[in-house]
Specification:
heterodimer; A: about 325 residues; mainly alpha; ABC transporter involved in vitamin B12 uptake, BtuC; two-stranded antiparallel ribbon; 15 helices; about 75% helix; globular; B: about 250 residues; alpha/beta; Rossmann fold; four-stranded antiparallel sheet; about 40% helix; about 25% strand; binds adenosine-5'-triphosphate; binds magnesium ion
């Protein structure tokens, strides 16, 4: 299993990855609270980006509604916690079940009725927006006034209820991101991954070579929505407040995937790299322009980034950086 | 040779018809291919050859008619099911998986009968060797020549361990020596494994060298069938090819 994971990875890549992991693991001891908060949110985007990339980058299915799965995960676990005191470790099971179910419903509709490409993406958007409206009208989920998690003594760590300082959430999301990276590498180097890539590259040819399209696309959307649901649980307990408008909006979905797009769709490390570039830059920009009161500057900046990427590094930053670091193509 | 029997299949096409809004691309086509035989499907451009393949392989639903593989109907089955039932096909316009290596392209085919990726990769390599593509195994399909991409199509179809192999103009664009090599490969495959082959081909050199039996289509209809020597003497066949192709 371990061998299979590292198989074909050049030594250099492994060493760099290890170095990266160590730096990230030690970061909280050296950086300020502010930088830590930026790292936390970067890793969150890296994790969700990885989950989203599994669908588009590996299996070729474009979702522009991944905020939906975050939202379902977040609202499920948060509602169970606030209303029934159910801890997030149990809540995550329900959250993942629900977000996966939602992913499978969308997948079923899209793949069964051959809704492809942009039209599939529109379907994901529709579901996200629709769910947002439902939550907005649900008093039980706080409606538009928001759902708030009870914040206990902030100083102490209550692992069971996921109450604690940012460092706790940092390590949690770091582990999740690392886990997702390992999982994706494992999946990509399996029959599943090869079938996904075949579907991505040419679905008719894949089908003619014996790939059951529906089943393998469903597996992709199920895994992707499950992982994203986990991210939602983390999100709810980190922020302690949820608003339907900001959780399910299409803008949110786009924000979630920008890191992966910039880093390199279809690559393993791209979503992580992209999130670690884009989020700090966005934060920096917000900080620099906070006095100027320019509305939508962040959105403008992101638009600029996407255009720049499409023009100059159409396959993302990571393939280019990997080339600079002399990691061969297989190490993506 | 025990494998031989298990890897041939009989194909029977009965009254196969496909209409595209007004145009009848394939019109009541019937032919039979006995197990282990090599048949050619020829005809001028637009005769309906590829459409016939698409219906056999399940990529297109027939408007009417039957396709039987060893007596079992394939109509209504999905392409991947038909593939696993033993039909391997190539595409006239090559359709490689562009972002994975040549070897992985072929491994996808092998995964139709095994879940073991290592085994699929080993089998893929054997197929690449068979087609003289082994040295290109790590290349991306976009970086190899068109004749090599044609070979890749064949390797991927072969990797599925078909009982019936449908080859759509895989020798187009090959030089005569390359054609001869490909012909030799198919003949050897057919002799060793017993695989039944139906090939669409404009390269008469290959048709003559390979096929036991030729079916000629024109405007969607079968206008002649018989041995290669018979059909090339058939006046109807000569007429439809007149000024279009050189039959020799
Ligand atoms: N999907 C489709 N929709 C509409 N018409 C089609 C479609 N596919 C094929 N046709 C038409 O059906 C006819 C037969 O096409 P087909 O591709 O089967 O010919 P062919 O014998 O393979 O020709 P070639 O030697 O040029 O490959 C042509 O007139 C073609 O334009
Ligand atoms: Mg054709």
């Amino acid at each position: 299993m371990i061998r299979r994971l590292t198989d074909g990875l050049p030594r250099r890549a492994l060493a760099l990855l290890l170095l990266f992991a160590v730096v990230m693991a030690l970061a909280p001891f050296f950086v300020s609270d502010y930088v830590l908060s930026v790292l936390i949110i970067s890793l969150y985007f890296a994790f969700v980006g990885q989950a989203w990339n599994l669908m588009l980058g590996f299996a070729g299915q474009l979702s522009l509604g991944h905020a939906l799965f975050v939202g379902i995960g977040a609202y499920t676990s948060a509602a169970l916690f606030t209303h029934f005191g159910i801890d997030p470790w149990v809540g995550v099971v329900a959250a993942v079940a629900l977000s996966t179910l939602m992913g499978c419903i969308i997948g079923y509709l899209g793949f069964r009725f051959s809704i492809r490409g942009v039209y599939f993406a529109l379907l994901t958007i529709a579901f996200a927006e629709f769910t947002g409206i439902m939550v907005d009208n649900s008093a039980w989920l706080g409606g538009s006034a928001g759902l708030f998690l009870p914040v206990k003594n902030a100083g102490s760590i209550d692992l069971l209820n996921l109450r604690g300082p940012p460092t706790l959430f940092y390590y949690l999301i770091l582990i999740l991101t690392g886990g997702a990276l390992v999982l994706c590498r494992f999946l990509l180097n399996s029959k599943l991954g090869l079938y996904w890539q075949a579907i991505r590259d040419d679905q008719e040819a894949a089908e003619a070579a014996g790939v059951p399209l529906f089943r393998y696309k469903m597996i992709a959307v199920a895994i992707s929505s499950a992982l994203t649901g986990v991210a939602g649980v983390w999100y709810a307990f980190y922020y302690n407040n949820l608003f339907p408008e900001s959780t399910f909006a299409t803008g949110r979905s786009v924000e979630l995937i920008l890191g992966a797009v910039v880093g390199g769709v279809g690559t393993l490390f791209g979503p992580i790299l992209g999130a670690l570039i884009l989020t700090p830059l966005g934060e920096l920009l917000t900080a620099l322009t906070s006095g100027l009161q320019i509305d939508g500057i962040k959105t403008f900046f992101w638009g600029f980034c996407v255009v720049a990427i499409v023009l100059f590094r159409p396959s993302g930053v990571w393939p280019w950086l990997a080339g600079l670091l002399k990691l061969d193509g297989r190490a993506r | 040779m025990t494998a031989a029997a298990s890897r041939s299949a009989a194909l029977k096409v009965e009254g196969l018809t496909r209409r595209f809004s007004g145009l009848t691309a394939v019109d009541n086509v019937s032919f039979e291919v006995p197990p282990g035989a090599i048949h050619a499907l020829i005809g001028p451009n637009g005769a309906g050859k590829t459409t016939t393949f698409n219906m056999i392989a399940g990529a297109l639903k027939p408007t009417a008619g039957e396709v039987l593989l060893d007596g079992r109907s394939l109509v209504g089955m999905r392409p991947d099911q038909i593939c696993r039932a033993g039909v391997g096909r190539t595409f006239q316009v090559v359709r490689p998986f562009g972002q994975i290596s040549v070897a992985e392209n072929v491994a996808v085919g092998a995964l139709s009968w095994t879940d073991d990726l290592a085994e699929a990769r080993r089998h893929a390599l054997a197929m690449l060797e068979l087609l003289g593509l082994a040295d290109k195994r790590n290349a991306l399909p976009g970086s190899i020549t068109l004749p090599d991409r044609k070979r890749l199509e064949v390797a991927r179809a072969l990797a599925t361990k078909p009982k019936l192999l449908l080859l759509d103009e895989v020798m187009a664009g090959l030089r005569p020596t390359e054609t001869d090599r490909m012909v030799a490969t198919f003949r050897r495959l057919n002799e060793e494994t017993g695989v039944t082959i139906v090939l669409i081909e404009h390269v008469m050199r290959a048709v003559m060298a390979l096929s036991h039996h030729v079916v000629v289509l024109n405007y969607g209809k079968v206008i002649a069938q018989g041995t290669p020597a018979e059909v090339t003497r058939n006046p109807d066949v000569l007429a439809c090819y007149l000024g279009v192709e050189e039959l020799s």
